[in-house]
Each structure stands twice: as structure tokens, then as C-alpha cells.
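Teaching assistant's notes for section 4

Start the section by putting this record on the projector. Ask students to predict, before seeing the second block, whether Fatty acyl-CoA reductase will look compact or extended. Collect guesses on the board.
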Amino acid sequence: MTEDIEQYPDRVADMYKDKTIFITGGTGFMGKVLVEKLLRTCSDLKKIIILVRNKKGKYPMERIREILAGPLYDKVKKLKGAEIINKVDAVEGDVMLPNLGISEKDRIMLANEVQLILHCAATIRFDETLKKAVLLNARGTKFMLELAKECKQLQCFVHVSTAYCHLSERILYERPYAPPADPHKVIQTAEWLSDDVMETITPKILQDIPNTYAFTKALGEALVVEQHGKLPVMILRPSVVIPIWKEPIPGWTDNINGPTGLLIGAGKGVLRTMYCKQDAYADYMPVDIVVNATLASVWFYIYDERKKWIFNLTSSALYKITMEEIINIGRKVINTKIPLNGVAWYPGGSMKRSKIVHYICFFLFHIIPAVLVDALLLVIGYKPVLCRVQNRIWKGFEVFEYYANNQWDFDNQESLSLRDALLNPRERENYKCDGDGIDYFEYFSTCVHAARLYILKETDDTLPAARRHMFVMWIVDKVCKGLFLFAVMYYLYQKVLSPLLAAV
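Reveal the predicted structure now:
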């Protein structure tokens, strides 16, 4: 396939030739995949500069070298040579800090050399404090736009937003929306007030917006919209970004957000109930498809005369998969193909339409077993763990239930036109922006396998033991259910049937 398509031009890669690209969020999930894709497909670029903060005593280039040494970059080093990673450089800074914490020397260098800015940095925690979320997602974007104004060769400033930042819009179109508040006033408030005071007034500021993430991402978007017509800005709104579908490592991720967390929790047997409509569907986009669309959209913006600048990178207009289908596929993958190690209970449970039934099941099948197991651990001299795990699951439910029990749809006509603009097989292969050909069972199989390897550190040589353990847990599950059914029937016989027979 690769030999056949090489005869065609790659206009997208040609556009990136000799460009210097500045990326924030390059050490995050999407950022890592973005850097790898740029190196592999647009290898004639001049340089990738990543904004990196010191962390745990490690300097920026130390952190970058550690990331580039990971398995995600094995393919590009094999194809392009190990020296390809020398095109990646780091600038010390922090989006949370005033003026991004960048030194004057580095700021001058960026202003003189950078042609493209990809602003991906954000806190994606839904329970983040409002002050921190504002400083990172809103003020950080403001500082990035100020830097963009200094860049003498700037061709495009890309702001990675989210499809879920205007939650009052049940159909999200590819156009700007009014922010929930004045972003400049909210930023000033966050700068002036202490953490405690800010926390106290958070409900009043958020009003009907369920979390600080959606609120502050909408503010960040509004700041970018203000610069439209003054700067070459573009807004990308990906939906829920999930593990890699195709390349370079199918199923790869570095976090347990979204479906991956559900698969691991259910696969370990600690997730037994969810309050969710079975026929509800969320909008998911594999990270490699999001990255492909990002690179192609920058090219499209620069060379298309219409200068379309807002793209909803979403899938549900074409591909819908319900929550029930995801759970059933995940259960089948884990139970029959790729079990996890150390399963606490045979994977089961179900989604509940009734919140009361869900709460009862959570108490019976989450809290009680956790308390019993932790009590046993204390008796034998170990630290309790399951109650802490269940507390995290409960907090996760608070976020999950809002999105799982509400429905949004997304108009993505501009994204579809972007796909149509990729004219030849090479461009369509290198920057695949659609889900044509996806097999959900195979996809979730690769997700579970990659989660075993890269998240849980469970190597393939442990699979036979995991399958044996799963079989034992299946027997235990059946025995327990049989005993429970017998106990219920015996109780009914003693309390109901036996007195009736005696009366007759």
C-alpha cells in the first residue's frame, strides 16, 4: 500500500516543509501523538519546539528525551532514523505562569522563528478548582495569543478546544458562540481572589454549567474568537479523544480517561453498576484521527481561500455507538479474549435507568464488598485499598452520569469538506480523518491489550495465568449467584409458601 501511494504528491507534508512549530501540551496524550505524527509524516519540517515545565526536578529536555524514548516513537525512529528526534526541542515555561514563564531570550527566539502554533495545553480534569482551571485554560490561552502577536512569521494559531464546551447547545455548529461570562473579568477575578474565596463563589460563577472544564474551555475559545481577523486563528473542537485506532501503535494511550477507564474498571471486576441510558451515545474520536485532522486543517486553512477557521472534529453524525454496545463489546473482549490480571470479581454488572436502583446496587456491590475486603486486609496487616478505589469511582460517576444521560449532536460540515479536500490516495491514507473501516470489536481489543501493556504493565506472558484466573472467577461468580438464588427461594418458602401450605 505504501509503495503504491508514494507516486502521489503530499501537499500537506509539503506545507510543513522547513516550518518551525511551537506546541503547548506536547507532553500530554494528544501532544505526544501529534509530535510523533509530525516527525513521521512531515519529516521535512525544520523544528518542533515544545513548551515544557520543570517537573520533579527534571529539566525540560530531560522530560522530552524520556518521552521520545518511549514505545510510541519506535516506528518513526525505525522509518526515519534515530536522529529524527533531534528535530524536537524544548523551551522552559508553564502555561499557568504570567507570560507563560518563558525567558526573554526564548521569547525573542520564538517570535523570530515560529510559523505555526498549536496550543493543546489544558487541564482536562472535570473536578479541577475553578481558579486553576481559569489560569490554565483561559489565562494561558490569553498569554499564548499575546505571544502569537509577536511572532513575525506566524501563518496559523491553532487552539484545541472541545466539542463539549457549549453544553447549552444541543446541536453544536461550526461557528463561534457567546461565552458564559466575560473571560477577561473572570481571569481578573481568579488573579485577585484567594483559592478559598474562589472556591466559595464557584457555584455562583458556574451557574448551570456542570464543571470547571467546560466553563473555562468556553472562555478560552472566546479569547481566540476575539482575535479572529487580527491573527490567523483557528479553533478545533475534538469530542472525547480515545486511544489510537491505527498508527503508530493500535490501542495506545497514556491515561485511563473515557472508555479506557470503564474497560479497566469493569475488567478488574470493581465496576458493577452505572446510571446510564443504554441507548445513549457519546461522540468519540481516536487520537490519531484527531491528529490527522489537525495537521490537515492547518494546511486547509493556509491554502483555502475561504479561510474556514472552526472545525468540529466529531464522529456521531456518521458513526454512532451506544453505551450498551461499548459495554457489551468490552465485556466480550475481556471475558473471552484478553483478560486482565488480578481480577477481583468476574466482570459483570449492568447499566441502570433508575438512579435509585443504581444507588442500591452501588451500595450492595461496591461499598459492602470494599468494606469487607479492606477489613480483611487490615486484619492480615495490609493497607486498605478498595474503599479508596470506590471513592474515586463514585467521583467519576458524578461526571460520567451528566454526559451519559444527556445528548448532544454536532454539525461537522467543514470537517467533511476537509476530508474531501484530500484529493489523492496518499493524502487520504496519511491524514485519514474518518472512521471508514473501523471494527469496534477489534478496536476495543487493541485498547484492552494496550492498556494491559502500557497502563497496567501487564505483559503478554501473564495472559495464560489471567485466563485461568478468569475461569476460576467465572465459577465463583456462578456459585455465588446460585447460592444467592437458593437463599432467596428458601426464604420465600419459609416465610410465604410454608405458612400457606400449613393453612391449607
